[in-house]
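User: I'll paste a sequence; please echo it back and then give the predicted structure.

Assistant: Echoing your sequence first, then the prediction.
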Amino acid sequence: MTETFKAILVSRDEEKKQSVAVAELAEADLMEGDVTIAVEATTVNYKDGLAITGKAPVVRRFPLVPGIDFAGTVTASSNSNWKAGDKVVLNGWGVGETHHGGFAERARVKGDWLVPLPEGMSPRDAMAVGTAGYTAMLSVMALERHGITPDRGPVVVTGAAGGVGSVAVSILSKLGYHVVASTGRPAEADYLKELGAAEIISRDELSAPAKPLAKERWAGGVDAVGSHTLANVLSMTSYGGAVTACGLAQGMDLPSSVAPFILRGVSLLGIDSVMAPRELRLEAWKRIGTDLDHAKLSALSTTMPFDAIINAAHDIVEGKVRGRLVVEMG
């Protein structure tokens, strides 16, 4: 008898109407790859919410198992870098978009897409970080490469109560930055202070159309919101500062001007987590192992069972989720 496992499957009919259901799959249903993994933990990101609700064309191959992240144990490998029993993490590479993803108890992928689970971290810990936290670390590393050190001045984090924002606040504060956390949820002020935010501001201060230049307020920023919010952050960044762009919660547009760039020398640093080269991933996950306060992982994450994924996907798109959502399989 063929052993089966649970998976969430996104399908589309001839009229291109999308549907989502829990299905039973076998390993023969998995896609090509040289490493098979028993998925122990996954996570629901904003992008996964878009995939399951169909609010954006994240899924580009049907039927497909969504889930852009997972962590687990290798069960079979023909890749020289991995052997059965190795603990691994996957983020991005089109998984959950064009290749079966993490919302299943088994996954098969290219070994080159995997990184080792950092020492001292469990699969659950890794998914409390997930793509959102890994993206936050890539943002912090980009600011550092641009010379935005704690002595340069405050750093703003937008969408601070979300997945990227929560981890960015935690990492930046541990590294000694004065973190200004922007959120549309005043009730999360205590949560953000617990993560290390020095100041909390309302997203209303940043969400209206921006002036070409405004009063200089911070040396840098991590923006997961886009649109008017990013335009305002840029207009308020001090001379020679830098802002990372890694999200589009408010919108994909950027209604800004060239003024911050040509009058203050501000830099806009694009962050791509999906196709980031392996060397950068390894550095980011190594830094997550050392520069993220692991005691705060429980504060910035909520654990749920597999059966809660579909409802959680709707909640995250509707802005009802704070921090990270971790799914423990089995």
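DSSP finds nine helices and 15 strands in the chain. The first helix runs from residue 46 to 53.
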